Amino acid sequence: MVEFLQFTLSGISFGMIYAAIALSLVLIWRGTRLLNFAQGGMAMFTTYVAIEVVHHTGSYWAGFAAALAAGVVLGAVAELAVIRPALGKPELNAVIITIGLLVLLEGLAGILYGGQFRSFPAAFSVIGLRAGSTPLGVSRFDVFVAGAVLATTLLLAIGFRYTSVGLRMRAAAFNATVARLSGIRVARVITLGWALAGLLGALAGVLVSPSTFLYPNSMDSIFVLGFTAAVIGGLDSPVGAVVGGLLLGVALSYAAGYLGSQGSDLTTVVALVILVVVLMFRPDGIFSGARVRRV
Amino acid sequence: MKHGSVLEVSEVSVRFGGLTALNAVSLTVAPRQVVGVIGPNGAGKTTLLNVLCGFLRPDEGQVLIDGRHYRNLRPHRLAGLGIARTLQGVGLFERLSVIENVMIGASCRATAGFWPALLGLPQSSRDERRLRQEASQALDRVGAAGVADAWPGELPYGMRKRIALARALAAKPNLLLLDEPASGLAEAELDELGGLIRELAAETSLVIVEHHMDLMMSVCDSLVVLDFGKVISRGSPQEIQADPAVTAAYLGASGSDDD
Question: Above 0.95 for ipTM, yes or no?
Answer without folding.
Answer: no
